[in-house]
Amino acid sequence: MILEMKVPSPGESIKEVEIATWLVQDGDYVEKDQAIAEVDSDKATLELPAEASGIITLKAEEGDAVAVGSVVCHIDTAAAKPSGSSEASVVATPVAEAPKAAAAPVVPATPAATYATGTPSPAAKKILEEKNIAPASVSGTGKAGRITKDDAVNAVPSMGTPTGGSRGQERTKLSMLRRKVAERLVAAKNETAMLTTFNEVNMTAINNIRNEYKDTFKAKHGGVGLGYMSFFTKAVTRALQLYPDVNSMMDGDHKIAFDFCDISIAVSGPKGLMVPVVRNAENLSFRGVEAEIKRLAIKARDGQITVDDMTGGTFTITNGGVFGSMLSTPIINPPQSGILGMHNIIERPIAVNGKVEIHPMMYVALSYDHRIIDGKESVGFLVAIKEALENPLELLLENNPKKALEL
C-alpha cells in the first residue's frame, strides 16, 4: 500500500511551508514516527514525522515551498524492512543532488539519464552563455558532477589579472522564517509612524540587589537565576498599567486596548530571531518571570519553539546589550505599538548631588507607533521604567525583597 504523506497545518494562519532539510534519503526504510524532515513556516521550524513504516519516496526537494496539504513523499507500507537495517541514515548531501522520485512508485521507474562530468543543465547552459563562461571552468555539484543552475548563477568569470586573494562567494536562500521576519520588519517601517525616545538608567540599585540575593535565589528556585530580564519585565508591566495606550494596537480605524500584559521577549535561536511570549506577566513573580523566560529560551535554542509560543504579545522587550550594543532604535513588532530596547551596562561618570560619581549606566530606547501613542505617553512610560529600575526596592519589591523574591 502506498501512503501519501501530506504537509500538516502548523497553525491556523499558515498556508505554506518550506522543506528546510530532509533527514532521510530517497529509498530509505523509515520507521513510524521517525523524524523524516524539518519544515520551515513563517513562524517556526517543525519536524515532520513518518506516518507509517516503509520505503520512502521523496516528492519535494530541499528549499521547495509547498502548500499545506500537499503531498511531499510516499511511503510503501508493504515493503519489507531490509535485513540488518536500522533507522534511515541522515542525509549527508543536499536532496537536490538526488534523482527525482518516480511519479507512481508502483510502476517501474524509467532509468535516470546519465550525464558526463561538467555537463550543464539547460538552464545552467543558458546562464553560462550569457556570462560568457566556458562550462569546463565550472565545477558541477549535481549528480555525477553535472552543472546545476545554482552552479551557473554562482560562477564568476575570470577577471584576467590574478589578485592572489580569494574571490569566492556563497549564495544561500533565506529560510521562510527569516524571509517572514524581513517582511514584517519592512512593513513595520513602512506602515507605522514609528518614533524612538531614549533615556538612561542607573543600574546600581539592581546590581546591589542581585549581588546580595542571586546565589540564594538560584539555590532556592532550582537553578533559575535572578537576571536583569525579570526586573525589566516587572518594570514594563507596571509602566503599561500606568500608560495603557502603550499596551494597545491599531486595527483599521479602531484601537484595541488590553487589560493584560503579554510580554514578547526577543531571543536569538539557531534559526534566527525568535520572539516567544510570556503570558500575563503582570501576575508573575520574579521567579515566575525568570523561569518562563528560561523555558522559552531553551525551546528556542533547541528548535522546539512552537507557533503558539510566539502568537500574540502586547509589548516587546529586546536586549541587544548581551551582544555589546550601546544604543539602538528597535523596530516595532507588529501589530504591537511599542518595543523597549535594552543595551549594555557601562560604568560612566554622572553627576550625583553636584558631585561626579562613577555608576553602571544603561541606555534604554522605546520605539512606538505615533499614530496611537503620543509623545507625552511615550516619554512618561519610559520615565516610569527608569524610576522603577532606579528604585526597585520600593516600586518593584514592595520594600520586602525576601518576600518578593520568594526566599
3D structure, described in words:
The chain is α+β, with helices and mostly antiparallel strands and 407 residues long. It has 3 domains: 2-97, RNA polymerase II/Efflux pump adaptor protein, barrel-sandwich hybrid domain (OB fold (Dihydrolipoamide Acetyltransferase, E2P)), CATH 2.40.50; 122-154, Dihydrolipoamide Transferase, CATH 4.10.320.10; 177-404, Chloramphenicol acetyltransferase-like domain (Chloramphenicol Acetyltransferase). It is 27% helix and 25% strand. The chain is built from 10 helices and 19 strands. It has helices at 122-131, 149-154, 176-191, 204-220, 228-242, 286-301, 307-310, 375-390, 392-395, 401-404, and strands spanning 2-6, 16-22, 29-30, 35-40, 45-49, 54-58, 65-67, 71-76, 194-202, 248-251, 254-257, 263-265, 267-269, 272-274, 277-278, 315-319, 338-342, 345-352, 355-369. The strands form 5 sheets. Strands 9, 12, 15, 16, 17, 18 and 19 form a 7-stranded mixed beta sheet that branches. The protein has a 4-stranded antiparallel beta sheet with strand order 1-8-6-3, with no helix packed on it. Strands 5-4-2-7 form a 4-stranded antiparallel beta sheet, with no helix packed on it. It is elongated, with a radius of gyration of 27 Å. The N and C termini lie far apart (61 Å). Mean pLDDT is 84; it is low at 86-115.
